[in-house]
Amino acid sequence: MDDRKLTVYNGRGAFKKSPPQILLQGNWLEQAGFSTGDKITVKCQQGQLIITKNEPSAEHEK
User: Fold this and answer.
1) pLDDT of 57
2) For 34-48, how does the pLDDT look when each residue is reduced to its tens digit (9 = 90+)?
3) Which pairs with CB-CB distance under 8 Å and at least 24 residues apart come from 21-25?
4) Nearest Cα to Cα of residue 58 among 44, 45, 41
5) Is 22 in contact with 8 (CB distance < 8 Å)?
6) Which of 10, 20, 22, 28 lies in the 20 to 30 Å Cα band around 47?
7) Are the C-beta atoms of residues 55 and 38 closer than 8 Å to each other?
8) Residue 48 parent element (H or E)
9) Is 36:24 a contact under the CB 8 Å cutoff?
10) Spatial CA neighbour of 19 closest among 35, 8, 28, 33
């Protein structure tokens, strides 16, 4: 599966400074094993986000 190059945009909201926003959409998500309604975990590290699909048992813990 190929890497995706995206842009971080200004988010919307009633904030003095707009929060950053990343939009992920496309058939490539399904090809990567994600489906509509899946629960995910986003691990945040400096300059890096790791998105993991939750197992069904993990969904009940959150």
Assistant:
1) 74
2) 999 999 999 999 999
3) 22/49, 24/51
4) 41
5) yes
6) 28
7) no
8) strand 48-53
9) no
10) 8
Residue 44 tokens, joined? 């945040």
Written as six digits, the tokens of 17 are 């400074």
Domain ranges of the chain: 9-59
Q: What angle do CA 28, 3, 1 make, to 5 degrees?
A: 55
Spatial CA neighbour of 22 closest among 31, 34, 9: 9
In this structure, what token pair is assigned to residue 36? 């509509």
Residue type for position 62: K
Query: 51 with 40: CB under 8 angstroms?
Result: yes
